[in-house]
Amino acid sequence: MSVAQRKSPALRAALTIFLIVWLLMAAFPFLWTLWGSFKVELDFFSITDWTDALTGPRTESTYGSPFTLVAYDGAWVQEEFWKAGINTTIVCIFVVCVSLTIGTLGGYALSRSGYKYVFWLLIMALIFRAMPPITLVAGYLLPFFEWNLWGHLATAAVVLVAINQPFTLWMLHSFFMKIPKDLDESAMVDGCTRFQAFRHVIIPVMWPGVITTGLFSFLLAYNDFAVTVMLLEKENQTMIPKIAGFLGTTQTEGNVMFAVAAVVSATAPLFVLVMFFQRQIVSGLTAGAVKG
Amino acid sequence: MKHSTFFWFFLPTGLAMLLFIAFPIVSVLIQSVYAPHEAVLIEVENQGPFGITKSTVVDQEATEALRAAEPLGRFVGLDIYFDRGHLALAEVGQAWSSSASMGEFFSALGNLPFYRALAFTLTYTFTATPMLIILGFVIALAVNTLPRALKGLTIFFSLLPMIVTPLVGSLILFWMVDSRGVIGSFIQYVVGNPDLSLKASTPMMWISLIVYGIWSSAPFAFVVFYAGLQTLPQDTLESAQIDGATRWQQIRYVTIPHIMPLVTFVALIQLMDNFRVFEPIVGFNAEAHATSLSWIIFNDLGGETRLLSSASTTSVLTIIGVAILLSPVLVRTWRDFNAKTH
Prior knowledge:
The structure holds two protein chains of two kinds. By secondary structure, chain A is an all-alpha fold. Chain A is 80% helix and 0% strand. Chain A contains 16 helices and no strands. The longest helix of chain A is centred in the last third of the chain and has 36 residues, at 256-291. The model of chain A is unreliable at 1-5 (pLDDT under 50). Chain B folds into two domains: 79-111, no CATH class; 112-341, MetI-like fold (Orthogonal Bundle), CATH 1.10.3720. Helices cover 72% and strands 6% of the residues of chain B. Chain B has helices spanning 3-31, 60-69, 79-82, 89-98, 102-109, 113-144, 148-163, 166-177, 182-191, 202-230, 234-242, 247-275, 279-283, 293-301, 308-341, and strands at residues 34-35, 41-48, 51-58, 74-75. The longest helix of chain B is centred in the C-terminal third of the chain and has 34 residues, at 308-341. Chain B is globular, with a radius of gyration of 27 Å. The interface between A and B is large, with 103 and 108 residues.
């Protein structure tokens, strides 16, 4: 161990420089956009000099200060981005709660049954996980139009729950496999039914796995663009399709800063999420890998 | 677990997947062999100043009635698969026989929307995937040497490109690489060409999209490899050092074999995910230079006329592509499962 840690100064310097470059690549775009979102368009997308985006001379001459909230005001108030924010919140809460509830039941069942069909169900889930969501959308539209389901927030949320299930099942399946079977089986020997054993023995110990899975369900619902852009009406769009909408309509009007402000606003919750749940995200990403 | 208990536990999730994943796949398959009804035409006679003229007009009522009665359209078999917008058999055959060289043939293929999208999708998938694996591996090696206090912060920043919404991430990069953005201006300065613009150059657009792909997925590879490095067998490493292995030899003969299964895992996941590349094309506004299979579906479905049949056909072709990429994973899972049970 001690030998392994000793490194030549040249190698150490090279690694440090590499890491600094990578961190710049990873973090700089976000900081740059955050900084630029408080400028006017001619500063952030300056034709004359790139340093304008840092100092903001035109922002200062227009608004008297190098920082302005005009872009945020335009996006949130004028273009009603707050509605999209509320819609995203509703969809995310619904998707996380429902997909965890039914996913936990299903994942538990898969982990406790030794029959051959478990394997085939897991394989099916794997195939479904690999389907690009947009390929399914073509299949939704016709029935949804016929039955008047298209355009409602609830429809999009239910679809996202379903698309989420394959991944949730795999993750919770591998998590429940790690909980010893003796735990719930001894409860059943004591006279519990399977559901009671699940309710009183498994639920109290399953939270670490459920929280990790919930994070990924949240990310899927929050980040989705393909499904929500196709299944929602303009009036009840979530944030990501709304941002895409800004590009189509406002880029020509010179209001691209609305999109910049909206993008920064949509990134902020994810920032906080990574800050608080970094450990869970890392463990979730590696769970599948280390097992398989 | 008893069959009946299993059934009730699995029912909700099974039902959700059946209704919203399995059925839509079937529905896509069916739609891909039906085409929209053609407009019903009727001949009308007009009494004009120069006698009676006959003209053909669309019978709106009859057309509407037919479309309402059979919303699926008319059965056309595999016609849509072979038309110009998809596999374009006739055009490909013609290009093959008329082209003098392979280069000419491929440039003719490049004018067909499906092959154009396929070319970019495959290029993106098979360049971004290996490069993000290498980048992720080097980051993992570098972070592993950091003192403990710095690791958390480094991992935090490294995760951001992956966690952020793909559309948002691609927009953020696009605004910087754009001719009026900071990186765009820098590139113009380096090349010495103030008119150089991402929007005008196909190779630059492809490179930017691939760079986005690497940027957004390298963190995933990094996290997985970093976890793998934590379980590196220290005694093997030490005996290699005692035997006089150089640092490079240690990585080549101890570290890489140890994390090889993880490399396979990351490669398979990323091949599948990169194959569906879609949001960056919207974010980079790249459709003039690069389209992908998912983007064609999106383009067909959007807009006023929703081309369901055409989109469904591309969807089926995409699903076939995913199935081909997925087959090694399925074989591996099958072997794992058999090894566990027997």
